[in-house]
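Help wanted!
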Amino acid sequence: MKNREKRGYIKRILAKRGMGQVITVTIGLIAMVVVFSFLNPFFLTSRNISNLLRQIAPTLITGIGQSYVLITGNIDLSIGSVVGMSCMMSATLMTKGVNPWAAVAITYVAALAMGFLNGQLISKAKLPAFIATLGTMTIARGIAQIVNNNYNTDSIGKAGEGFMNFFYYGKTFGLYNTIWIAFVLWLIFNFILSQTRTGRHLYAVGSNIHAAHLSGVNIPATITKAYLVSAFCSCTVGLITTAISGMGTMDAGTSYELYAVAASVIGGVSTLGGQGILLGTVIGAAIWGVLQNGLQFAGAPVAIRNIVIGVIVIITVLLDIVVRYNKKAGRRQAAAPGTQASV
Amino acid sequence: MKRFAVVLLLGMFVLASAGMASARDWRIFLITMDQMDQHWVTVDAGARKAAEELGNVIYQWMAPDVKDDAKQIEMINNAVAAGADAILLAANGPTAVIAALREAAAAGVKIIYVDSPADFPAEQTLATDNEAAGRTAGETLRKALEEKGITSGKIGIVNVNAATMSTVLRERGFRAAFADSSFEILETQYGEGDAAKSKEIAANYITQGVVGIFGANEGSTVGVGNAIREAGGGVIGVGFDKSNTILQLIRDGHLLAVMAQNPDVMGYEGMKSAVAVLEGKTLDAEYVDTGVSVLTKDNI
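Answered by r_m:
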């Protein structure tokens, strides 16, 4: 009796939508790790694994935010700039003598305001997501430059040590805090996405916004929530960036929105909306991080690295499209036996 | 009486405009690679200071948001269209913007290079001899390692990207300092000058067991210093440029030395040279090496 239940449980997990892609890319990830460890003995040392997990964390966190937005059928181009804005704001406040935790709170408020603006522009003012977040992207970057008068900040000094340890340099139970932060955020946001009504609404809006509207889903609230989550994640990574360098740099976070899209898409989150699970984003971020780390250890010249990364992203997305297309074709054949499945 | 008044007024007007012509303001633009790198902000500060001192300069700093050839060409064209008398330019690359410079020169605009020259004749170039400075950094690192009894091992370079001439030259000079040694310099990794990315790259180098790391610009150097601090020492780091954070890292012993450039001098003297040329004077030198100082714990 017990064996049957166990098999049923595993089957249920495998049958979950989006799992197919996750399994495919997990196999890819394992293959990559094996190859890189052959190419360089230092790759599998405990020191590197520790560093590697910590290097993956920011990509995962911004990936979670971007996944939320992608699932609603939108995109957030402002992620990188909000990272930069948060980095500069928190560092500037701290160098001016503000208590680090007060600075953290103020920075989150500013970032969430940016996320709220995104959500409202897209859902109420009906701006296309690409355009709206393009606008907030440049605004946020501008704020990052103005906040300290177009200068990078001074060092946040001894007063910022607690802050730096919390977000980056400290360890808890043997793992870097950054890894814990990413893990906790993943737990929370995964729970919201898979177990709550808000999560279901997010998928509904992304799958068919008109049907969702007719079913009584509050579209503006749902879309705004997605962008608030994204802004929260971007702010967290901005604070991590401040902690890494102990100062604020105006160009922090450049291109992060694209890496977040890559992590999401590799993990099976569809750019068309309504599809994908955050477990996929974890694997996507891991693949991204392993590639960066592994290619450095392999001594690959930068040109090769860029090409390799691009090819892998395309292959994983292609795999997803091919698998989904074959599923669709298979279903059509089953539904109308005897008729030729149209190509 | 009326005619006399008219002639008097006309005479005053002629005198006034003649006066204006001989003491006219020069429109001078500073065009850098981007507006966020501290290096350019300091060049601007130097140029602005000279403009204020001289008093007859209408000064404006123009730079694209990111380093991009097409955008820099656009800025040059905009400056010419806005009536520039002279342009202080930090060229993205030796050949990238030559066409725009040709048009500017044809329109009578005087060109002065600050920090990075292009392959197009100009009045003067004020820059750091990047290859020599890189070599000095390499020699400083090598000497420190040999003093500790280390004559072989791996060395890592954290550079910006493959397209920025100044940092490419610094790396070339750095590698030259190790040409006849038993040290192995690993494949260069690029961090785009981002302090956080550079820190991760340097940390990876430390995992691979390097004995020394070189940061080719300010952001790279901050990253190198932070990585060495986290590792608890054992690796010697040298770099470029100074900032509050970098000076602190040197004081705390995580960085051995940095090559401090003088971007403010580039801007200041560049502005002065521009005005001198516009006023018809000849310049003393075609190339001014604004130099580097080697900053260590002992002299900051």
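OP: Thanks! One thing I noticed: The longest strand of chain B covers residues 152-159.
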